[in-house]
Description:
By secondary structure, the chain is mainly beta. The protein has a domain at 4-115 and 156-191 and 216-234: Acetoacetate decarboxylase-like, CATH 2.40.400. The chain has 4 helices and 15 strands. Strands 1-3-4-5-10-11-14 form a 7-stranded mixed beta barrel. A 4-stranded antiparallel beta sheet has the order 7-8-9-13, with no helix packed on it. β8 and β9 form a beta hairpin. The model has no long low-confidence stretch (mean pLDDT 95).
Amino acid sequence: MPSTFLTARWERLVMANYEVAPALLKSRLPRGTELDLWEGRCYVSLVGFMFLDTRIKGLALPWHRNFEEVNLRFYVRHQTPQGDWKRGVVFISELVPKPAISLVANVVYGEPYRTLPMRHTWEEAPDSLRVAYEWRLRGRWDRFAVIADPDPEPLEEGSEGEFITQHFWGYTRRSDKRTDEYEVEHPPWRLHRVRQHEISVQGDLLYGAPYGDLLKAPPASILLAEGSPIAVHQGRRLP
């Protein structure tokens, strides 16, 4: 197994899942991958969560251990020469509040990071859990928030929640001829039942058409995953 590049905890992952026509994503597919569908449905997800206790090669960088991330992603799979399938994600955009993270991710790894002021709110009560992620764009705070049951439940085998959360590979399109691959290791995440949600996003400014229009529509589903420790292994170029 490749060496571990990054470790952290990903906590309280809010996921809004939108069904889209596969043709929307064809031009974004990294070489060597194909769209991964759930029961014939193609999804794009808006995901907000916290990076906690982040370490690079075991080292904690000052002022870069704990921070928010919000990303827009879709789902792919890659077949190995042995015929096995690896299920992964491709990022359309990733927001973080730390410029150094965006710089390294963009220049070294080719990932589409952007830096914006960000904040989050977690409110726990005996009968509810409130989770919100916000980011400031052109003087306005965008917001992605849920109210959920406080106690999580295990994943159901074959469920939409299992499909969305159980993609353990990342694929980056470096060029038309080059795809980079890396593995993200984590245990299965339990899910909190979401009762209410709020999505107020300037999608046109963040992602452009047609994703701006997509984020104005009601999502097909909303998930809140409890999260866990994770490990990102050193990436490689697909042959």
